[in-house]
Each structure stands twice: as C-alpha cells, then as structure tokens.
Design goal:
Length: 207
C-alpha cells in the first residue's frame, strides 16, 4: 500500500492549517488544486473523496481524512506522535485535544456569525457566543508562549491558523495577547511557507 500523502486544496482557503501542519512535520507530500471558485469541489470524482464538497481533503494511502482539526490530528499522530502530538499518556494530551477541536468547532463559527451580524443566542448554538469564545482564547494565550505553555504543538497549528486569519480579516480583536502570539507563530518557517502557498503573492497582484 502506498503511503503517498496527497492534499487536495484550494488557494485562499481553509487549507492553510493543513499545509502548515505538513510543513511543520517535514514529510514529503504533493498538492492537488481544486478550484472552488469554478465549482470543481462539486465534481463527482471529488465528491467521492469528500461528499461535502469542501477543501481540504487529505489522502494518505487508503486513508481519507476531511475537516481541518481531523486532518491536523491525523497527521500529528501519524508523523509527529510524541512531538507535535502529545502521547496518549502525556498530561498535555487533554488540553491538546480540547483546543484543537475548539479551533473550528467554537472559534470559527463564532467569528463568522459575529462578522455576519446574525443573531445566534449561545444557548441555541453549540459553539457558544463570540464574546465567550474570544475571552476563552485570550485567557488561554495570556502569559504563555503557546497553547500548551512553552511547548509548540499541533494545537498551535489549528488555533494559530484561526488567529492569523482572524486578525488579518479583523474577525478577532487586536488584543495584545493575540497579536504577540501571532508574531511568535508567524516567525516559524513552516507558517511562512503555508502562508505563501495558500495566499500566493500573485493572487493579490491579480486583484
């Protein structure tokens, strides 16, 4: 069985975190570009991989993984267990899982709903309210370098991708803790590579 790693992605998309994780792990992979602006993600061939018709989708051998935190968890466990992924018996494992899932199960929908100025009472929305999500995020990052303290982990890829994008789009406030954290993760070469890959300079030149 081939263990070739293939990432189906689109430029300027949520593929950023998956690319960043692959770059942090330093494993060989190839990318297949799916043009979501032309509707290529709804083509029958792609829907067989990802019935939701979204990007990113990760294929490793016979394994197909969708959803950003699941991709990050899979890659970190498969290729960075004990490093980017705390071991199952590591006391940091619980926080690692919590914040990995928080990135898109709570923070992402809360910021999108807030940006769209839609009413979504916290007791109706499983992700809670925007203010609570931001307060939780700031509380996590104040007084520490990374999600797990001094230790960079895969959770920083998932959370960090949301912070980087949220600060750029103004979906998140310019709180000192968030700005400082973004500067730390932004100094990582894997982050810079993923940033340039997902939002290539020529994309902005064309616009």
């Amino acid at each position: 069985m081939s263990d070739e790693i293939v990432l189906y992605r689109s430029v300027a998309s949520r593929s950023f975190a998956a690319i960043w994780m692959l770059e942090e792990l330093g494993v060989p992979y190839r990318m297949e570009t799916v043009d979501i602006r032309s509707g290529a993600q709804k083509a029958p061939g792609y829907l067989r991989l990802n019935p939701m018709g979204k990007v990113p989708t990760l294929v490793v051998g016979d394994s197909v993984v969708t959803e950003v935190p699941a991709i990050c968890l899979f890659l970190a466990d498969r290729f960075g267990y004990g490093g980017l992924a705390p071991r199952i018996d590591d006391p940091d494992r619980a926080a690692y899982l919590r914040w990995m899932v928080f990135s898109t199960a709570v923070l992402e929908p809360a910021t999108i709903i807030h940006e769209l100025k839609l009413e979504a009472p916290a007791y109706h929305a499983g992700w809670g309210g925007y203010d609570d999500a931001v307060r939780s995020l700031v509380g996590l990052l104040e007084g520490r370098d990374y999600v797990l303290g001094e230790r960079f982990s895969g959770a920083d890829v998932a959370i960090g991708a949301q912070v980087s994008v949220g600060l750029f789009t103004k979906q998140l406030p310019d709180h000192p803790a968030l700005v400082a954290y973004n500067a730390r993760i932004g100094a990582r070469s894997a982050h810079a590579t993923a940033l340039a890959t997902n939002w290539p300079p020529e994309l902005f030149a064309a616009n």
